[in-house]
Amino acid sequence: MSVQVRDQYGNPVVVGTDTTVALSSTSSGALFATVAGGTPVTSVTINAGSSTQGFYYGDTKAGSPTITASSSGLTSATQAETITAGAAIKLVFTSSAFTSTTSNSARNPVMVQLQDQYGNAAPATSNVTVGLASTSTGARFAATSGGSSVTSVTISTGATGT
């Protein structure tokens, strides 16, 4: 990405002194750097005699963050980005732990989700069979409350959980 100083008509303006530009994002997972994969920074400098400075942006949170470049005395620039989840690498429980009485049927909903390495919900690229197990010898799993016993469930292609 690049940030550029422009006049009121949109023309690039060469700065006379080094100009520090603060970088921020509405995402809590935002990372800015001066080189690809480099050390995170919170600002870049447009050097005197130039109008533009490049930087890199990455994000660990899927979503639609807005990034902002700002410098004292200049109108801030904003740009909306689209960040998608990485490949699914883990399963996590998204339902809360529960306390229940003994029963011969499955009655408590349990939800699992595919997530990328940063904890973002990640869609399945093909059907994912999730095996179900418990340390209790009396445990029962069902696809619906009180339904027939199952030993696995499937997260369908494109879905993030079940």
Descriptors:
162 residues, mainly beta, four-stranded antiparallel sheet, two-stranded antiparallel ribbon, 31% strand, rod-shaped
Q: What's the assembly state of these chains?
A: single chain
Principal-axes geometry comes out as rod-shaped
From the helix content, strand content and strand pairing, which structural class follows? Answer: mainly beta
List low-pLDDT spans: none
Main sheet summary: 4 strands, antiparallel
| Average pLDDT, all residues | 96
Short description:
This protein has 162 residues and is mostly beta strands.
Describe, in plain words, how this protein is organized in 3D:
With 162 residues, the chain is an all-beta fold. The chain has no helices and twelve strands. The strands form five sheets. The protein has a four-stranded antiparallel beta sheet with strand order 4-2-7-8, with no helix packed on it. Strands 1-5 form a two-stranded antiparallel ribbon. It is rod-shaped.
Task: Write the SSE topology.
Blueprint: E1 2-4, E2 19-25, E3 30-33, E4 43-46, E5 52-54, E6 56-59, E7 66-70, E8 77-80, E9 90-93, E10 112-115, E11 128-131, E12 152-155
Antiparallel strand pairs: 1-5, 2-4, 2-7, 3-6, 7-8, 9-10, 11-12
